[in-house]
Amino acid sequence: MLIAEARTRSALRRLAIGLIVYGVVGLVVAAIGLAIVVSTAGRLGSLSAELPAEVDRLTGILDRTAVALDEAGATALSFSGTIDRTGPAVRQAATAVRGIVPELRDLERQAGAVSILGSQPLGGIASLFGDIAGELEGLDAQLDGIAEQLSANGGVLKTNATSLAALAGEVRTLSERLAPSGGTSSSGSSLGDAGQGLGIVLAVLIVLAAVPAAGAVAMGVWLRRLLDDPVRST
Question: What does CATH list as the number for 14-228?
Fold first, then answer.
């Protein structure tokens, strides 16, 4: 009988110690959770206060970016127009060179054919015409190549201008979405409300976890006192 009673008291004592340890651990975890909730709530409050200014700064950057993209697109489009006008002029120059070279060669032959008393007084001029014709030969092909490159570059610039205009429109749309409606920032208040709601939920969960832990500690302490009191335990 005494052995069974001693075993029962030992088991109850271990149970009391377990309840106290469980309760203390639960209270410590609840305290840590409460500290985290308070710290998080403070950070969310600071973030919600700073967010409107950051959003305004970001929308300003996006607006300036959209303007820069529009200007770049307009510049590319204007330059493509200049190239479109330059290409035909270069082709006309190539055509003129192709017509001038034979004429210079003809003048070279005519000037070289002039002979007075066995001398060629226009020989120098004939040689000059020949040198000019030699310098101009092949220039027409080079001008044609330049005109083709200008036309190709003009098309690329037009495509770039279209892409830049589309990108500017997307950036401007994003800026309008980020900009607060009605001149007030709802993002900061929404974040603050979300932080308050999350804090309340976490606080309730912490309380729900702390109450059983406190009850376990109280139960363990009461059981220890009951076992240590010889009058109550008999």
Answer: 1.10.287
